[in-house]
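User: structure tokens for this one?
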Amino acid sequence: MVAQGSGGKIVNVGSTRIFRRSRRRAYAAAKGGVANLTRAMAVQLAPYNIRATAVVPNKIGSRSAR
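Assistant:
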């Protein structure tokens, strides 16, 4: 994207698991790495008109209404 010179967008998929305690520490660490990688890319690639964002899906509506 930098070589093209026309900018671009990068979208990474993370998890809300990094914001809570979890027994699955390796998974949380990996998703934390995705979050930090996205932050670093956003800062370093901004001068080239490249936007880096992360989508963090969450469980909503997982219980039926009573």
